[in-house]
Amino acid sequence: MMRAMADSDAEPTPTDHLVELQRLDTEIDQFTHRKANLPEEAARAEAESAVVMWQQQHDALTARIDELGRVIVDAESKSADLGADKERLEAQMKTVIAPREAEALMHEIATIDGQRDEIETAELEALEAQADTEQQLEKHQAGEDTVRAALTAAESEAAEVFTQIDAQVGELLTARDGEQALVPAALLGRYDRLRKHHLVAVSKLAGKQCTGCHLDLSAAEIDDAKDEAAASGGVADCPQCGRMLVI
After folding, report:
1. What pTM was estimated for this model as a whole?
2. What is the C-alpha separation between 217 and 205, in angstroms, rounded?
3. In order of start, what are the domains of the chain with their CATH numbers?
4. Beta-ladder partners of 206
């Protein structure tokens, strides 16, 4: 995991440790970004969404069956009540003598028959709709194992990748702790402050260019940076981007 911080056998300098600290933090940042954008996690989220949609449809079908069941029960109750009313009126018919009264009773009976026909028609429609919905539910339930198995597999794949990344990040963090302990407090304080604004807080002078902002420095700026670095342990501030510039 660690890279050689110096080309020779010379003892690493504080700036070497600072550069190595930045490299480790960059790798940790890359792993963190990768973990947040894993295709395996996207696949897991998609599989989870499929299960949620399956459950929602299952609940909707079940609720519709229950609703139709209540319609059927209500229709049967109303039909029974109307049937009792009809029986009562038919019994009255047997005792009625006046034609006008008999005609009124016959009209009431006809009205009840019409109401019962409407109720029975609605009940039959509800029974048919309930049977159709039950078939839909049965067909829908047949797909449950598939969507749940897909989610289980996706969760397993995502968890495996997460475990691998966490193990790699753990190694990097251990190495980072070692490097951080070797960076002088003053440099570390500057580094931590800059890291709040720049993921890459430490850059190098490569020719005339800062490797952090990739902008060229003028000859005067390079001379000033070298003088500043000589006076502060090999680190200056890039005049273009403000990063810690290792000379």
Report:
1. 0.68
2. 9
3. 14-37+165-246 (1.10.287.1490), 39-160 (1.10.287.1490)
4. 209
